[in-house]
Amino acid sequence: MSGKPRLTYLNGRGRMESIRWLLAAAGVEFEEVYLETKEQYDKLIKGGFLLFQQVPLVEIDGMKMVQTRAIMSYIAGKYNLHGKDLKERALIDMYVEGISDLMQMILMFPFSPPDAKEKNLESIKERATNRYFPVFEKVLKQHGQDFLVGNKFSWADVQLIEAILAVEEKIPAVLSGFPQLQVFKTKMSNMPTIKKFLQPGSARKPPPDAHYVETVLKIFSK
């Protein structure tokens, strides 16, 4: 064992991508094991590796962690990305939960039936521009700082830049009415650890394609 966190998931974004983002932003190298067959997944369940019979699975500090939120909370705490006190942690958690709601829509979009894709894309745009992005635009404008909480880089900032870029892939002009978020996006994208993660050849996964959707459905079929 190299001591690096070991991530077990499919070779695609899904629920693991936010974990990859957080580790990369913290400057932590990790290893990945990709599930390609239902047999591999069933073997993990039978071996007792998956507490709730679900992936992502992250092996870190001698633990076999499941549940995305718990994994990310641990990583954020370990690498000092979870605020300096309870109030900051509460704010970070609140922002992360909000962003996660938007990310859930993006996560499910590739699995939309063809005749629902346009409607679902419109829903993502509507939620992003009317419910979620205005919150963060206002926060950044009100306190005039580079980061969302405590003027210090945190888990919430990582989640937000991931969400911005994910929405922009589908709706390129989505930030046109959000000048603060445009500045935030530029600053975050130029942070050394994030800049590295955004380069070709990094552990960042491409947008889901038909093959990824097919693999997901095959592995997790009942």
From TrEMBL:
InterPro entries the record matches: Glutathione-S-Trfase_C-like, Glutathione-S-Trfase_C_sf, Glutathione_S-Trfase, Glutathione_S-Trfase_N, GST_alpha, GST_C, GST_superfamily, Thioredoxin-like_sf
Protein family: Belongs to the GST superfamily. Alpha family.
PROSITE patterns, sorted: GST_CTER (PS50405), GST_NTER (PS50404)
Domain of life from the UniProt record: Eukaryota
Gene3D superfamilies given in the database record: 1.20.1050.10, Glutaredoxin
Protein name: glutathione transferase
UniProt keyword annotations, A-Z: Transferase
Domain GST C-terminal: 85-209
Source organism per UniProt: Bombycilla garrulus (Bohemian waxwing)
Keyword hit for Protease: no
Pfam family name, one: GST_C_3
E.C. designation(s): 2.5.1.18
